[in-house]
Design goal:
Strand content: under 5%
Largest sheet: none
Shape: elongated
CATH class of one domain: Mainly Alpha
Radius of gyration: 28 Å
Number of helices: 13
Order of helices and strands: HHHHHHHHHHHHH
Length: about 280
């Protein structure tokens, strides 16, 4: 990472064997780390990371570089490797701590963007299934947004944009799950509140068409036909080919209604925004 004679070849082989033995193999007593240079300890960490099934040993070496040789170039490299190795081993809190220390010590360094990305990734990779609490999803979104805004022309920003969209979709999915729960149990007002959040705050996600359809269902159940028709009109304007629109259209026409903007609810405002091209 940081980057022909038989006698010489044998000497090289002997040196490699001695080095590997020092890394803990063959029962040979390890040389005290404080007798090694920062580069030697760092490279042992790299070797352990590449060859050991668990990263514990690699983390120890990278930590020792920072402890024994603070404020050196090797300590800086070791710190970013700590963040990477902790994340690889799914020790996300430790990964965030190491990444944040790197940003605190070296905010202008060329690897600061990567540290910021690792910090965001440590939240993103903790996002649970839709059925569980989504608090960490908000933290992931905030951290990913920071990468996008602070390092816009990097590969990290491009990756963060994709992950941001997926995390954003995850939050919308959570709202939909709760809304469907309320709708199924006849708690229509509570269901509408959840679907409204999706329509207003998560309109770029994959859940908007269904949210509009569920609004049609919920408003019809409450007898609020103006709102139901307006939701159907928005759905038809944006998602006419969607099966959700076909279902909403049938629900409305079966009651002698049609998708059209009516009344003066929050949906009417959304409809006007759609017509002006300011929404979706």
């Amino acid at each position: 990472m940081i980057g022909g004679k038989s006698g010489a070849r044998l000497l090289g082989t002997a040196l490699i064997v001695a080095t590997l033995a020092g890394c803990g193999g063959g029962g040979t007593k390890e040389v005290p780390l404080d007798s090694l240079t920062a580069e030697e300890i760092y490279k042992r960490g790299e070797y352990a990371l590449e060859t050991r099934p668990k990263p514990t040993e690699a983390i120890r070496y990278f930590t020792e570089v920072e402890r024994l040789y603070p404020y050196t170039e090797w300590a800086k490299r070791a710190l970013i490797m700590q963040a990477f190795t902790y994340h690889k081993s799914k020790k996300y809190e430790e990964a965030r701590s190491a990444a944040q220390r790197y940003l605190d010590y070296y905010p202008g360094d060329e690897d600061a963007g990567y540290a910021k990305y690792l910090l965001a990734l440590s939240y993103y990779d903790q996002i649970d299934d839709v059925g569980r609490d989504q608090g960490v999803t908000f933290q992931a979104l905030q951290a990913l947004r920071a990468v996008i805004e602070e390092y816009p022309d990097t590969e990290y920003a491009r990756s963060a944009i994709l992950k941001f969209d997926m995390a954003f979709d995850q939050l919308a999915a959570k709202e939909m799950e709760i809304g469907r729960y309320y709708l199924k149990r006849g708690n229509y007002s509570a269901a509408i509140n959840r679907f409204r959040v999706v329509v207003q705050d998560f309109q770029t996600t994959t859940h908007t068409a269904e949210a509009l359809h569920r609004l049609v269902e919920a408003y019809l159940a409450l007898g609020l036909t103006d709102e139901a028709q307006t939701a159907g009109a928005i759905l038809g304007y944006n998602y006419q080919a969607s099966p959700f629109y076909q279902d909403s259209y049938k629900l409305l026409t079966d009651r002698g209604l049609k998708p059209e903007a009516k009344g003066d609810s929050w949906l009417k405002q959304v409809y006007r925004q759609v017509i002006r091209g300011e929404w979706i």
